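Priority: low. Protein: TetR/AcrR family transcriptional regulator. Input follows.
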Amino acid sequence: MPQTLKTSVRTRILAAAAEAFAREGFAAARLTDIAAEAGVSTGNLYRYYPNKAALFDAVVPRPVAARLLWLIRARVRELGTLAEWRSATAPSSARAKALLDFWVEQRLPVVILLAGAEGSSLAHVRPLIVRDLTRLADRYVASQPAGERGSPVPRMVLVQLFSSTLDMIVAILQAHDDEAEIRAAFEAFWCYQLAGLEALLAGR
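Result:
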């Protein structure tokens, strides 16, 4: 007679795995450590998830990754229509608010997708986001009147800039688990980041 899998045990395993993947990344996280943190044997963990990839997929389901990409692309499209970026923060932008709400609700999965997915089936998510943000920068520069464009920003600089932006998002989500603190940190970050990026691309 097959043994019954307990919801409470599955919940503990998923919580421990989320912490481990967010802290160490998919590649470095070990199932033995996750099992110990969840308070189960490694053999018992395998009854719930046959391998690390299956556990990762349960912690970060593909719909969560797809939603993150959709929200960021919606935000990119919004910024692409604005003449001024610095005021496009959560209080004044529905798309910024939706993205921030998602980061709060899916704090650890977002950290994993942006900083801990290397070696997993979702390792492509971070490079896609950097690519989309770099294309936004290119479109912004192209939209400026010819006489007002600054010197072109090298692609390598933009890629590094947006990679650092994702690192800051991760740092905020790792540093805070209180919703109010997360929101305040992102508002402060967006205020200077959007203004600085706009000035860089416009050559001001």
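DSSP finds ten helices and no strands in the chain. The mean pLDDT is 86.
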